[in-house]
């Protein structure tokens, strides 16, 4: 019996914790403040805000606590964005700054930096901390554990491979240089111990002279006329090894793909050389857990020391969302508090409440924290089962389940093993480390991962109140949508699960859009028990995701009970009953109605096969039970490129110059800058209508909120309110909103939280207007912009007449969110005189930001300076769409005379910024029976959104890439931009080219299907040859696609693998493999002629250091690193002598945006020209002062009045194309590539794995081969995401953006990349025709389309399934090929059963739509 009691000790109002080893005490903490907000307020800005939902991992920190139940310290990776500061009492928080700094980095930081695992760097601290936590718990993990530890971390730049490579150097048996052994000791080879690299006979040990050791990012400068063999070959001895000049690393050889000779794979040699220099990882040298906190947790501190006490804190801010916070330490204290405050919200991991506060702006004024109550964390066992304390974390629950399964064996623990299976797919490590069993059960979510398993297992819940205990079956506990049988004042104490009996099988299944870190679409738990005659005596089939709450399929269970398990008739009966019982309306909330229904029977079918196999029942399904589950394979990768022997620096695999600052958290992004005195924050008032007249804006309530300074509308714009080259978009709308989420007013307030709160208090009245959302609706309503784009070559009608086959059809590819990890941010600082303004912005286009701000404020552009240090990812999304954000800050600063900061939340960013353009193509094509294309006519449409933005340019780029790599004798391409009431679509890596190529490649697939040919054969027969002309009349020179096609086909053993795939598919019923080979040709140049120019400013200082400024921005692509390499090579200086501080409009004026993959071309040549001029000026001094330092030479030149400053300019020659005449040079050159992708598809769920990808790219003579490999891998991952999982959706009823964060929009994770990823650079190609800087090619965008090879491999797998089923109807697949798309395309019996008849669809729209 529990009784109401007061706190055992007087409650406190302060919290005590340690931060990076230092004790911190906070009196009366802000109850609304998260740990992330606190950390950043103290200057620890390495921990980033990426989403605020716990879905991206950028905010990961390690939180350690002493567990009194287990008597040990628990280290947990935690999402600081969801962790309330007040819950940190008694814990030790370690941030990325707590490891080490760039001068002496932690081994984790060093390895990620030097192995190219950090590009933009915004996500990097989160990856560092996830790996750090793993190593603190297990110093010698397996590679599988390493990959799993990143399940909550997202990266948009790298494609994950280099991060995983770096992390796996800590794995058991990995390399063994500086790797901790299982006992915590260090293994070092004899060679390593003596100073060698670890390879027997290391060249370092063969010569007594001291080796030259370079600092990070530096290069040893040898005589440019000589080949620095050891350096070029990735040596570890820097040329100081054996007299032969051959480093041990350089002697590692492989077969060259270009010839039969042996050649060095410089990529692997570089990697080995870097690894050989890593510092050892010694886990004994980590920050210890403060001993005081152990005594604090045990409540054994001295009277003079702080005591662990209950907490009862009342907010000092009347406007706080949480007004009172109670932290009891015993169950009786909790029950007493609940009796007094029955409406209080219980808080444990805060994963759900934090999301509600973030996304729904929910307020919970009274909160009780329950994570420090030992009685709720107990685990006990009896002969009949196990009882779990309801408040153990999911991570601890998983460990306990592992223990019980191992202890009691498979049969008794079927239910426990099923729970463990679903646990591993719940959210991510950071969430599982804090979320609890009780939270998962009590929320009664319809998509709970655990409730269906508990329901199937017949779990019993124990509830307690001051009135006593009661036990409730979970089947009676869940009453409806987020409704339970819990009475006021009750708390869930424990959940009991029975052991399983003989003849009983339990399994759990879950389907989501992404394999990890995702919420369920459908989740389920199944249990069946049969007697010795296979007669079913008991069954339970529980589902989540198909009703308003977790439900039992009673009819299906009734159909099963009494039947003979294993008989086909029983299966048909159970499946039919399930399908009839779990019906969904076509417009069902959450969408995917047919897919969800298909999953209900598909999972039940899987369970049938698996359970029959377990029960040793022979039937067709049990024979293929091995196909019904999947074990994830650890990924591996290989990169290949040849040495660079004719240059000292350019071309070498130098790591990103800012990488060490990024991995340590030292790198500063815009929002990391300290606040200035009196600084204001912007809150956006967003439209809640998709298209409407603004009748009035009432901001009285907002202005009454303390801290609110000003509300700005269109009337407060002093200058020009319209912007972009078409002047069809307003900074703030004057009278009409054109899409749901459009900013229509700005709140200026003392803090971001106040500004965002006030924005929601603004009342806007509207008059609704007709709206258009999708491309197809726009076509139907003729809603177009005026501009068209057309390319006509030859006589298409004649070509079609001559064709053996003429086909008509459509191709579609969807939108894609940029999902840069750093959202839009800007700070505007007024200078106080002459209207001067300094703007710090995360933008790819500082010049346009400068010009637009000047126009908006009505001042000359010379009064505005825009500065960009670095960008946390851009991908085109921070070109035009960053301009209004910077203008908002500038407008606020102008109107208040104070510094103004704007930093968008992830949901605000995704609602207001544009995405990749969706495209629809309507085509007619004529081909011969061999598949040769004779003529093609295609009308293409992109969804431009509510304003022009860059949609016309994107359309032109798409039109010019409809040919991809194929010769077509007659073409007629016509493009239109659709005007819709959605965000203005904008530039995205690829800029329309990938969409154009996708439309044509989809068409070729349908052509091949009709001809009975492989699409690879159709592609190959149509490949351009050297000298052919494109539809825009550009002859192909330096054309290497046929060579790469042949080379990759042989090296990757395409023909053998094709045969193996076909053999696999002939033997596998439910899993199918697919193979696709895909080329790409990407034109490099801005299509607007005047943008093809770059400029640079270079200073040589008297101490010999060099400062370079140029017009490009650094956003992770390594542009600054490449520019520094060009400068160092040209000036014949070590790389460490070159410094690039930032990009600013007062040092690089009138710049082009960093876009179109031309920034290295344009700015590189400009830097070269400036440095060449300086080198020429300094040459006489160098000759006269041979042997003296460069500092002495620079000083002498200065004293001689030699100008040590030079500007450089470059304009791409010969560019200029006339669309009306179809003449002129459209592109300066083409970057080319070929990829092969192999996949495996689960045809019952639509889930797939990318088994292997091989890529070869022609990028000319790379400026930095390692960085370019990273660009290829990162672009591929984006292309794979675009075509397979990234589905951007809108509400069909309101037009509101549905996908507003990582909880609803899925980019690839580390678990989604190819299991075997091989990337190679084409070597030995003739580059004589390339007139680019050092004969290099742009690489940022071109590889992205190769990610679509995964889509086409999946299509191949679906075709295999359909052929097995005898489906002869044409296969039409649109991008992205989500699990829903793939599952329903298989058209098997279960998919057809789930189809909703047309008469039940009439008058209804799906819940969400693609546009």
Q: pLDDT below 50 for ≥5 consecutive residues: which ranges?
A: 1-5, 175-236, 238-261
Percentage beta strand: 15-25%
Give the proportion of residues in helices: 25-40%
End-to-end gap: 59 Å
Number of helices: 41
Mean pLDDT over the residues: 92
Q: Could you tell me the radius of gyration in angstroms?
A: 32 Å
Describe the largest sheet.
Answer: 8 strands, mixed
- The structural class is alpha+beta
Commentary on this structure:
The chain has 41 helices and 55 strands. With 1411 residues, the protein is an alpha+beta fold. Helix 19 (568-581) packs antiparallel against helix 20 (593-614), helix 30 runs parallel beside helix 31 (993-1011) and helix 31 crosses helix 32. The strands form 15 sheets. It has an eight-stranded mixed β-sheet, with helices on both faces. The radius of gyration is 32 Å and the shape is globular.
Describe the structure concisely.
This protein is α+β, with helices and mostly antiparallel strands. It starts with 13 loop residues before the first strand and ends with a strand.
